[in-house]
Amino acid sequence: MIAIDATHDPKLRSWVASANQAGCDFPIQNLPFGRFSHGADAAPRIGVAIGDRILDLRRAGLIDIDDMNALMAATPEKRSALRALISQGLAEGSARQAEWESALVGQSAATMHVPCRIGDYTDFYTSVHHATTVGKQFRPDNPLLPNYKWVPIGYHGRASSIVVSGQPIRRPRGQLKSPESVAPVLALSKRLDLELELGWFVGKGNSLGESIDIAEAENHLFGVALFNDWSARDIQGWEYQPLGPFLSKNFGSTLSPWVVTMEALAPFRAPFERPPGDPQPLPYLDDADNRAQGAFSISLEVLLQTVKMRDAGEAPVRLTHTNTTRAAYWTPAQLVAHHTVNGCNLQPGDLFGSGTLSGPEPDEAGSLMELTSGGKRPVTLPNGEQRSFLEDGDTLILRGYCEAPGAIRIGLGEALGTIEAS
Question: Any alpha helices (H) in 12-62, and if so which ranges?
Fold first, then answer.
């Protein structure tokens, strides 16, 4: 597992002044990667977020390619070496300040893109609290299926409709069937929902037929971003049996533009622990390091701003908040080990959705379906508006950050999407 080194030093400061402000998502200890374009540069370039700026890695002379997938495929040793060079060059007193100032772009002036080419996307179901609560609504007598605590559940999703933060999400249509109806109808979804997720990106791949041992699994991960896998619950309720989600999910998923690397996450590790009485993972999903520090402590929150709030100049309000240590039943390494145990070949840039991350308490629910008990108990907002599910014009914002004693807080930025009428 990646060790803490000089790039994580809490005393480290940057000559980019905004990176030193308290609460900044992108201090010098973070250095997340993304793709951006700016001005006459129409083609996306690779950059690293520092404060409110972006360091263009090619202009800074640090790389000679603009292919994020190729960078993600590098060995952990090469990635750590690049991180060290970036950190040294951005640190206060660096001899590269004068040279690199011309390689900085303001984030507000840049256009962000999906961080890489996503060839394949697998969505997991890693929150036992979400699985249980939603299972009660679909299967009251059998909410949690017997395989859940033994095997990381997932399905293969649609990569082409994953969009970067800020792009609108159009309300989908599909087959809907009420319990009272004899036949379904084609109509717009009335029960559009959010899903508070993380997206784990694959770095180095593996060959077809080769499994990845759990002890090596993190060497095949590049980093993490925020992910909102929007869901049309009424379409989902009719179509999900017997094969699972289809049109209820593939109309759009929102990804934050910055990928926080596994190196940056090193100070925020946590033990992987199962509740007393739960089965322990099978041997291929278990090792001493994963138990000791295979989890990551990432705080997550969802905010909502309605059209009425926006017109009145009111800030978004928080709907829910949780932490991955309370929400996730499987670690990222376990997802990699399970995905490849049958010889499935992963490729750089593949994306693993965590599934909706809901904690054990009601205010930790990662979806409106849970917060409102399937729409039966609407959420009342401070301005008096109510929401059971999302309405046209609603803007959803996902935020995430990591904090730990002796470490500088780092953030994941935002994943923002606004519902657009069809």
Answer: none
Per-position DSSP letters for 120-142, written without gaps between them: -EEEE---HHHHHHHHHHH-TT-
Q: Structure pTM?
A: 0.96
* Active-site annotation holder among 8, 129, 130, 339: 130
State the pairing for strand pair 317-323/299-305: antiparallel
The Cα–Cα gap between 251 and 230 comes to: 8
296 contact partners, CB below 8 Å, separation of at least 6: 224, 265, 268, 269, 270, 324, 325, 332, 402
pLDDT per residue over 205-237, tens digit each? 999 999 999 999 999 999 999 999 999 999 999
For residue range 278-290, what is the model confidence (pLDDT) as tens digits? Answer: 999 999 999 999 9
Question: Alpha carbon of 321 to those of 129, 225, 317: distances in Å?
Answer: 14, 17, 11
The residue ranking higher by pLDDT, 227 or 42, is: 227
Helix, coil or strand: residue 295: strand
Q: Which domains does the chain have, with CATH numbers?
A: 6-113 (2.30.30.230), 121-420 (3.90.850.10)
Q: CA 398 to CA 302: how far, in whole Å?
A: 5
Distance CA 327, CA 130 (A): 8
Say what the pLDDT of residue 240 is: 87
**113 flagged as catalytic:** no
